[in-house]
From TrEMBL, chains A, B:
Keywords: DNA-binding, Transcription, Transcription regulation
Domain of life: Bacteria
SUPFAM superfamilies: Homeodomain-like (SSF46689), Tetracyclin repressor-like, C-terminal domain (SSF48498)
Pfam assignment, any one: TetR_C_24
Positions of the UniProt region annotated as Disordered: 1-27
Entry protein name: TetR/AcrR family transcriptional regulator
InterPro entries, sorted: Homeodomain-like_sf, HTH-type_TetR-like_transc_reg, HTH_TetR, KstR2_TetR_C, Tet_transcr_reg_TetR-rel_C_sf
Source species of the chain: Actinomycetospora straminea
Amino acid sequence: MRGVTGTRPPAPEGERPAGTRRARPAYDHSSLVEVAARVFNERGYDATSMEDLSAAAGITKSSFYHHVRGKEALLRAALERALDGLFGILDEPAATAGTPLTRLRHIVRRQVEVLVGELPHVTLLLRLRGNTETERWALGRRREFDAAIASLVREASAAGELRAGLDPAVDARLLSGLVNSLVEWYRPGRVPVDELVAEVDRMAFEGLLAQGPAGDGRRA
Amino acid sequence: MRGVTGTRPPAPEGERPAGTRRARPAYDHSSLVEVAARVFNERGYDATSMEDLSAAAGITKSSFYHHVRGKEALLRAALERALDGLFGILDEPAATAGTPLTRLRHIVRRQVEVLVGELPHVTLLLRLRGNTETERWALGRRREFDAAIASLVREASAAGELRAGLDPAVDARLLSGLVNSLVEWYRPGRVPVDELVAEVDRMAFEGLLAQGPAGDGRRA
DNA sequence: GTCTATAGAACGATAGAC
DNA sequence: GTCTATCGTTCTATAGAC
């Protein structure tokens, strides 16, 4: 069911089994994509020239072109990496078995991990404004992902696993917003990932208060 | 104490007592600032020309200049409006009296209201990247505001009003991130503001779960 | 006549195309 | 390196309300 709508571009060349090495430093495709994503985030996609990208990678523009097809292909590769990470979560066993709440909670925790692990790529994804066709494609995929979360929130709410009384659609937006807001401040090193995961999970599902909620115990 | 750091530009001319009318449509300064903020958000500040702005306002570029000092002044006015709204919250009685948690909770709820009421201006503020001097000034002010929130979270945590065990600095970031993420999806009309306020408050402080937390009852 | 919102024209600067 | 388009900005003029 998942990943059906997204058009999959031709498999990226330049992939290489782990452990295989080159004599030269061997700029591999994925590290150049990461550099590109970082510069795109700093300067903005439009404002970034191929000169900027090759300079950031430490090679000349012509060498750079030997490794990548072009600017838009780089953008697309970076966005695919973010989206593959996110959609990959939905296929994990723990995301497909158990109660809606259990699955949702697993997905949120894994989403934080993917977001941190693919920080430049996900940041790029979350800052898209939909100017080019590639951007609109990625935005569509992202909406699919958000819809999967929203659907799960709705299920969990209907099953009485979430606090009753308010709008599950809004809760889903807030939940995604909370997780996605990490890209605005989180930088690797300062806060351990597992601690971050615990904090986000706790805030989202249990809240910040010391005591339990003023529970009226009703179910939907 | 608040609002001290911000340099205040010369008072905007063109202000006029309420009720006074002009024969011509009379574009007032604040509505032009709002239009500008909206277009800045759509196109990005750099990519927006004065031609774009005047066209969006429905007058020619030269007419537009009769009402505003220039592009950067418009940006600054929009950012000031956002910042004044936010800092104004910190001076409200309910934000200065009561326990840290009470004050924090009031601020968060009011922050949602300001964010919705000044949506284009706050959106602009939250998307700044710090390219120009004005942007850096606004980012500094915004950091001051976030620091005030963080300080309050720390106080509430120290007072045992928040769940113990994790990092108050991270909680403060998450709380701000949750609230600020509203600008990415909220549009007036669909969800009533008071409902939105209730949802954000509930998620932040009580969490999404139906039952209370697995409270171990310990205090910091 | 005075005031002012509006508009047309043009200037200096600059960024990108070629 | 040159040329051109566009940008932010300013100047001058007109037209309508009081």
